[in-house]
Every structure is written in structure tokens, then in C-alpha cells.
Amino acid sequence: MIPTVHRTWGLRGQTPVLRHRLRHYGKVSAIGGLSVSPRRRRLRMVLILVPRGNVSQEIVVAFLRTLLRHFRGRVILIWDRWAVHKGPLVRAFLDRHPRLRVEPLPAYAPELNAVDHAWGHMKYHDLANHGLEDVDALTEAVADDHARLCREQRLLRAFVRATELPIRL
């Protein structure tokens, strides 16, 4: 719940002050992905928010179920090497669903992860200097930002292009 603070405008001689309650106990975790339609080259951002908790293997499996419901045919996951992606529940789910194929990113390579570019944009441009009061307000702000981001194909394409991976858009 501690807001990210970035440079902002203010009246000359008056330093802007961001007031917030110092809280270390509130957070919103998320798991998300960017999808590229092979035919239409349209991008979508899928997101599951976890207010007041961490992303667990159960949440990852729920995310994978969401992907299977929304996408026909083969789904290729380009994943970072986060430990929760490699847990026994996730591995068992992937074994039962062969149309999900995982392509791991190199270790410690966030610059190759399009979703990390999206998170960075959301945190820097949309959620910085927020001073939100509670986890519910933060959850709503992230959900609203996600909905706005989903409508901006140009920006979603920029996140994928920033990875410099050989993905045709």
C-alpha cells in the first residue's frame, strides 16, 4: 500500500506532498499474460488479481484454466522462471493439458517478458503517486487500469516489441 512516488508538477516554491497512511500489510498480487492472436494479430491482456494474498500454484492453475477457456487450439506460454510456475500442481496440470506448451525465458531476463513491461507501465504511469486508502481501492485501480490497457492495441504491441523476441505482430 506504500505508493510508488514519481516526479510530478507543482506550484513554484511549493513542493508537492503525497499524503498516505504508512501500511506494510496491504498488497494486491496479480498473474497476467499477453496473448497474440495468430490470425488477426490482435493482442489481449489476461489478468487475475489476488487481493490480500500471494499468487499460489492454485492461482496459476486457475489462470491456465482461464487461458484454455478463452483460446482455441494450441497455446504457447512464454514464462519466466518464477518458482510458482514450476510447482507440482502446475506441472500436473500442464501434463494433463498437452495443448499448453511452455517455453521458458532465460533466468533473470525481465527485459524479455512483455508482461513485465506492462506491469512497469501500470506502476509508473497509472498507479504512481496514488495515495489510495485500502487494498480494495488499489484492487479497483489496478482492474480499471487493466481494462483501459486492454483497449490500447498500440501500447500492448509496444510491450511485445520491447522484448525484441521474434514474435510477428
CATH superfamily: Ribonuclease H-like superfamily/Ribonuclease H
Distance between the termini: 36 Å
Order of helices and strands: EEHEHEHHH
The percent range for strand residues is 15-25%
The radius of gyration is 18 Å
Which structural class fits the helix and strand makeup?
alpha+beta
Q: How many structural domains can be distinguished in the coordinates?
A: 1
- Looking across the biggest beta sheet, what order are the strands in? 1-2
Descriptive keywords:
169 residues; alpha+beta; Nucleotidyltransferase, domain 5; two-stranded parallel ribbon; 4 strands; globular
Can you offer a commentary on this structure?
This protein is an alpha+beta fold. Helix content is 37%, strand content 17%. The strands form 2 sheets. The protein has a two-stranded antiparallel sheet. Strand 3 (75-79), helix 2 (88-96) and strand 4 (100-104) form a beta-alpha-beta unit.
Task: Set out the fold topology.
Layout: E1 28-36, E2 43-51, H1 57-70, E3 75-79, H2 88-96, E4 100-104, H3 114-126, H4 135-150, H5 153-162
Parallel strand pairs: 3-4
Antiparallel strand pairs: 1-2
Short description:
With 169 residues, this protein is α+β, with helices and mostly antiparallel strands. The protein has helices at 57-70, 88-96, 114-126, 135-150, 153-162, and strands at 28-36, 43-51, 75-79, 100-104.
